[in-house]
Design brief:
The chain has 838 residues and is an alpha/beta fold. It is built from 21 helices and 56 strands.
């Protein structure tokens, strides 16, 4: 049987190590990753191997040649452009037509039993057999669900935490029959797990999974690159370490010169022809490449040093990576997580702080303190984006320097000359940081339309109705005046999708920003009358029939926020009797604490009741969300208001569709069925809700947190548009809000959060799925997290938090006591699987 080694990877997440070398040639204990893979193939009898190459292909061919030194025969299939995992193997089809073949990645370290995998494939008569592995963090891999007989039922590539329903992932190792090529178009970029395998599964083809028990690690990040070195030295993976084991865990290479007064504490590796002088100290998990010189008094601990490097006297390296041919001179210090790439010079007494990246051929001057490199660096955080965009403490976590880099990353993703809309709330912090955003965008060759202070809905409107390719809004985090949110928008004015967020995150992490030439620097424009355009378009698109005749009276509280810039004109054109409170833009009170918000709602309710108004509305600081009180002055909570609004909309739109999150009560299903509308559930992502709202059949969408979408006007949450629509619906129904609320059944939804270590989240979700008794009629919904529905309609949702080490649970049943019991049952299951895998 032949094997195919995929060696075309560029390894962008491993930069700067892969800035001038292909990923498969990265050394793990002084041998390229791909060499370890080829030696594994040789041990299992795969002598004939085809290597697919693309990025820096000549370097791979030059290093391995025809494979004679390894006792193998290697041939190469070269891609002129990247063809994806399936397209690259299709490119080698001519050498693979005659018999079954094995596909393996050239940049993952493994010692799994390939012979057992092949035997399992033949035993089952499979078209494709996928090697599967359980991992603690499945986000960067393809999740696979297989039935008891091993047949695969579902693939999901690089999920969000809300989509994690298992910790069993695709290792990228496959045994295949040549017939699989019939399903791969030639000359196109095609991926096995994203494109080919899902279609094969849907067509009923025999695609099987086989769970392997050996070691497997995708060397895709700098953290995993360091981790595999430690695993090899701990002998957790069966690979050959070059040199002689002169004492337990200490390997010394050929003709290496280690002075007797040097201190070596293994496990560690000293490569061929190295020189370690007296007084140098090499500590655990240090790896020296070939021809490395370590001078007197140098200290290295968990340091990976490339070939031909020089480590000067009294230099101090901890948990870092030093590239080939790099000089780290006297008394220089390189800290944890830092990477200094090939052919660099770190001069005397320079200090490179943790997680800084220095790209090839750079010089760090003597005595320089590099905390955040002006060249490239990494923040080392789990994810840039949270549920509210990019958030953090003002001038602590969200600094002007950080804002410049984030905005520069956003600019890099857009074509030169594109336009971006910027806006902010009334806070001073947002004003200062927006200036940093504008500077970064214009120096990245992006034109800017600055709305200055504007409601969030107006900013989204300007993006989708102008020539803007996106938008950035800065606002104080609701409920926390010390924090700020930076919201990035797509060309339709909606929040960036998870995929777009990951792309921006990658550019930010690599710190590879585009800079404009002087003649390309973008323009700054201040468009006029955007609020007027918004108002006119809103009134043109939303049906306000009946408002003028209903003689309504409402109390409106803009919270002293940006909604004030639109409301006077909007209310004047509607002809409604309005009592306005907090009607002055206030840049000193940037948000309300929960206690402040409760007091403001109480005051609003008192005004509604005393003035005999039909209802009252309080907007948040950016006009995006609203809280409603009924004609009696009683607040209607967000969950109930979703149902009231749904009832009003559905009554006028029989046969249409509405969209709500998976956490919404089943009472919403009852209301929808009563009025003959279809209810669709989405994930908790704002981007998913907006995508559903763009469907022409959808007439209403809400997020259950005071956010409502008016699809005929826009696909994003819009408090101002929701207010206009609510006003018209109340005018036409001629019922009070309390009467509508009273006819809707009560809700019994409860919620709880369980602390969950990041490394245990995938295991927890797999265990949750395994506890579901589908034979008893239980149904699993994986729209977001795992939602388990009992035959009687009661349900529980288990959802890992994307930004914090917790798992959230919601439950609903016939009454609150039963819902709490259901919640306790599943919370106990989540809590019982908290052990972090080792």
């Amino acid at each position: 049987m032949r094997a195919v080694v995929m060696a075309g990877g560029e390894g962008t997440r491993l930069r700067p190590l892969t800035a001038n070398a292909p990923k498969p040639l990265l050394p793990v204990v002084n041998r390229p990753i791909m060499e370890h893979v080829l030696r594994l193939l040789k041990r299992h009898g795969f002598d004939e191997t085809v290597v697919t190459v693309q990025f820096l292909a000549a370097m791979v061919r030059t290093y391995f040649g025809d494979g004679e030194e390894l006792g193998m025969h290697l041939s190469y299939a070269t891609e002129s452009t990247p063809l994806g995992t399936a397209g690259s193997v299709k490119n080698a089809e001519a050498a693979l037509r005659d018999e079954s073949f094995l596909v393996i990645s050239g940049d993952a370290l493994t010692d799994i039993d390939l012979s057992s995998l092949v035997a399992e494939h033949r035993k089952r008569g499979a078209l494709v057999t996928v090697a599967l592995k359980s991992v603690p963090d499945p986000l960067e891999f393809g999740i696979v669900i297989a039935r008891e007989d091993g047949r695969i039922s579902r693939f999901l590539e690089k999920p969000t935490w809300g989509q994690v329903f298992s910790d069993t992932v695709n290792t990228g190792i496959y045994v295949m029959e040549p017939e699989v090529f019939e399903h791969v178009p030639a000359g196109e970029a095609v991926d096995w797990s994203a494109d080919v395998f899902p279609k094969l599964v849907a067509a009923g083809a025999p695609v099987y999974g086989h769970v392997v028990s050996g070691y497997w690690e995708d060397v895709g990040t700098l953290a995993s690159f360091q981790r595999v070195h430690a695993d090899v030295l701990n002998q957790q993976v069966d690979v050959e370490i070059g040199g002689f084991e002169v004492s337990p865990g200490v390997w010394i290479g050929q003709e290496a010169d280690v002075h007797p007064d040097a201190v070596l504490r293994g496990p560690l590796v000293v490569g061929d022809y190295c020189k370690v002088e007296a007084g140098a100290e090499l500590r655990e998990y240090t790896v020296l490449g070939s021809n490395v010189v370590v001078k007197q008094g140098a200290f290295l601990h968990r340091a990976i040093v490339g070939d031909n490097a020089l480590i000067g006297a009294r230099a101090n390296l901890r948990g870092c990576v030093i590239g080939k041919g790099t000089d780290v001179r006297r008394a220089a210090r390189v800290e944890e997580g830092a990477v200094v790439a090939d052919a660099c010079v770190v001069e005397e007494e320079a200090f490179i702080s943790h997680d800084v990246r220095v790209y090839p051929f750079k010089t760090i001057e003597a005595g320089a303190v590099v905390n955040t490199s002006v060249i490239w660096e990494s923040r080392g955080q789990r994810s840039l984006f949270g549920p509210r965009g990019v958030s953090g403490l003002v001038n602590a976590e969200i600094t002007p320097e950080l804002v410049v880099r984030i905005a520069a990353a956003y600019a890099t993703l857009l074509p030169k000359g594109a336009t971006v809309t910027t806006a902010r709330d009334g806070s001073r912090a947002a004003r200062a940081l927006k200036r940093a955003v504008i500077s970064a965008l214009t120096t990245g060759a992006i034109d800017v339309r600055d709305l200055e202070v504007a409601p969030m809905p107006v900013a989204r409107f300007d993006v989708r109705t102008s020539d803007a390719a996106g938008g950035i809004m800065l606002r104080t985090t609701p409920g926390d005046p010390e924090r700020i949110d930076i919201v990035f928008m797509d060309a339709d004015g909606g929040d960036l999708s998870p995929a777009a967020q990951r792309k921006l995150d990658r550019v930010f992490s690599r710190q590879e920003f585009r800079r404009a030439f002087p003649g390309e620097i973008g323009d700054l424009r201040l468009p006029a009358r955007t609020a007027d355009r918004y108002t006119q378009d809103l009134l043109d698109r939303v049906d306000t029939t009946g408002v003028a005749e209903a003689d309504l009276k409402v109390v409106v509280d803009p919270s002293g926020g940006a909604a004030l810039l639109v409301l006077p004109t909007l209310l004047g054109r509607l002809g409604v009797d309005v009592l306005t409170v907090n009607g002055r833009l206030d840049d000193t009170v940037t948000t309300d604490t929960p206690a402040d918000a409760r007091r403001a709602i109480e005051r609003l309710g008192a005004l509604v009741a005393s003035s005999s108004a039909d209802f009252g509305v309080r907007f948040d600081k950016v006009g995006e969300r609203l809280t409603v009180v009924d004609e009696r002055g009683d607040p209607i909570d967000d969950e109930r208001m979703l149902l009231v609004f749904l009832d009003l909309v559905a009554a006028e739109n029989r046969g249409s569709a509405v969209a709500v999150p998976v956490t919404t009560t089943t009472v919403a299903d009852q209301v929808s069925r009563f009025h003959g509308v279809t209810l669709r559930r989405t994930s908790l992502s704002a981007a998913d809700l907006s995508r559903e709202a763009r469907d022409p059949s959808v007439v209403f969408a809400a997020d259950g947190r005071g956010g409502f979408v008016v699809p005929e006007f826009g696909a994003a949450v819009d408090g101002l548009a929701a207010f206009v629509r609510l006003l018209a619906l109340v005018a036409r129904t001629r019922l009070t809000l309390s009467a509508i609320d009273a006819r809707i059944p009560q809700v019994a939804v409860v919620r709880r959060s369980v602390p969950t270590p990041w490394a245990a989240k995938g295991t927890v979700m797999r265990r949750v799925v395994e506890h579901v008794d589908t034979d008893a009629g239980y149904v699993i919904d994986t729209t977001d997290g795992v939602r388990i529905v009992r035959p009687d309609g009661a349900w529980v949702l288990v959802l890992p938090d994307p930004a914090e080490a917790v798992t959230h649970l919601w439950a609903e049943a016939g009454d609150r006591d039963e819902a709490h019991a259901l919640l306790r049952h599943w919370a106990a299951i989540v809590d019982s699987h908290q052990r972090v895998p080792h």
